[in-house]
Amino acid sequence: MITVVFSVFLLTLLVITALGVVRAQNLFTAVMLTGIFSLLMAANFFVLDAADVALTEAAVGAGISTVLLLGALGLTPREERASGAKRWLALVVTALTTVVLLYATFEQPRLGDPQAPVHQHVAPWYLEKTPELVDIPNVVTAVLGSYRGYDTLGEVIVVLTAGIGVLFLLGLPGAVGDRPRDDIAKGRTYLSHHLVPQVVGRLVIPFILLFALYVQFHGEYGPGGGFQAGAIFAAAMILYALIEGEREALTVISPKLLIWMMAGGALLYGSVGLVTMALGGNFLDYNVLHSNPVAGQQWGIIVIELGVGITVAGVLLAIYHAFAARGH
Amino acid sequence: MYLAAALAILITMVLALIRALSGPSVYDRVLAVNLFGTKTVLLLSVVSFLYGRTDFLDLALAYALINFIGVLAVLQFFESRERSNTDEAQGQ
Question: Radius of gyration (Cα) for chain A, nearest Å?
């Protein structure tokens, strides 16, 4: 009951925020409201007990998406351009889609209905068999890394493709030469004369990195895993770039290393599949990795989660640097 | 008690949202977003105690750690805008 009340309340706020984003003419206002949208979304996931999804939304939405949107805003005018095109067609299409979607919701089972198809199909099997087959407390990680390992590999490839797309359009500074170009090398940090952000940032960065490692390796026991850890790691490095300048950040993780991280993580994931095939199992069937199948599953999940984390961190950082270098 | 706290936080979130939507200046909105982030951290903490799922506190911790990065990015954004053209700092 409380869950429903919370959810309805948060969803109402979500709709109001979404309307605010659409109505905002000033793009900066829209970016700020998008931040609120993300926070509400995460709170809603959390209330619905989906802690892993909420942590992903938190890791990406709290810091990185605002930073990336502001980077994009640096390349565009501040006000939305008034569209001269006829809008009634768009209005009709949107209204029709809304009606169809509303109609579709009548077919949906009620929230928490034990007879819902989602609770009848594979979910009970996952819950029942995970202690025996994988033996980790967080079933979400088992589903993500093992039972549906192909999907997760596909998702990592999607992230990698997104990164490649952005780099093709904007280019990564200094990726071709050995060191960053001179124009970024001027140390363009606008925060260098603000003492408080600098001191606080320097204090907090090690803890964020530690927390990223915790989320990475604690994913079997609590909410977390590669996607979240990669995003938190990238957030720490973006914070470093904000307070120390992009040049410093690019010396810590060079553009070449970033590209290796992007590809290397996905490669690590895929090669686990090849190793299992070489050992006589199916692609991404971790049972063969160890003489004890349960230990094999756990090893497999740890390694592929590491691959996911490396790729996500690499892609997010590369996109950030691409935007930041262009923004100047 | 947790319920009362959660409701109070939700009301504060509504107030912050009203400020973010109505503005009028850009800095009001920045402050509102920052406040909203803090309230989200509090809401997640209270709700995790309300549900008895204290292992979910990790989430609130993640927010508390990286929430201010966005605000720093906003600060940097305005500083760079101010230097490139001085008359744009005042929004709408």
Answer: 22
Please name every residue paired with A79 in a beta bridge, in sequence order, or none if there are none: A26
pLDDT at B88 over 50: no
Q: Is the CB of B65 less than 8 angstroms away from the CB of A211? A: yes
The contacts of residue B5 (CB under 8 Å, 6+ apart) are B46
Residue B13 at interface with chain A, using a CB cutoff of 8 Å: yes
Rounded Cα–Cα distance for residues A210 and A49 (Å):
25
Provide the ipTM.
Answer: 0.86
pLDDT tens digits, one per residue of A294-312: 888 888 888 999 999 999 9
pLDDT in tens, A149-193: 899 999 999 999 999 999 998 887 765 544 444 444 444 556 667
CA distance B55 to chain A (A): 7
Mean pLDDT across A242-266: 88
Question: Which chain B residues contact residue A32 at CB under 8 A?
Answer: 20, 29-30, 32-33, 74
Coil/strand/helix, residue A26? strand
**Structural domain of residue B33, as residue ranges?**
2-88
Quickly tell me which residue has 């997010």 as its tokens.
A316
Q: Are A8 and A57 in contact (CB under 8 A)?
A: no
Q: Say if residue A68 is in the same domain as residue A165.
A: no
Specify the range with the lowest mean pLDDT, choosing from A19-28, A118-127, A315-324, B20-29. Answer: A118-127
For chain A, how many structural domains are there in total? 2
User: What single DSSP character describes residue B86?
Assistant: G
Q: Is the same domain home to A153 and A289?
A: yes
Output the average pLDDT for chain A: 84
Structural domain that includes position A219: 125-328
Rounded to a whole number of angstroms, the distance between the first and last alpha carbons of chain B is: 42
- Tell me if A114 is assigned to some domain: no
Distance between CA atoms of residues B59 and A282, nearest Å:
35
Q: Do A223 and B58 touch (CB under 8 A)?
A: yes
Domain end, chosen from A79, A108, A136, is at: A79
- Pair of tokens at residue A181: 């170009």
In B, minimum Cα distance to A214 occurs at B58
Tell me the CA distances in angstroms from A258 to A270, A305, A306, one per residue in order. Answer: 19, 18, 15
Nearest CA in chain A to B56: A51
Number of domains in chain B: 1
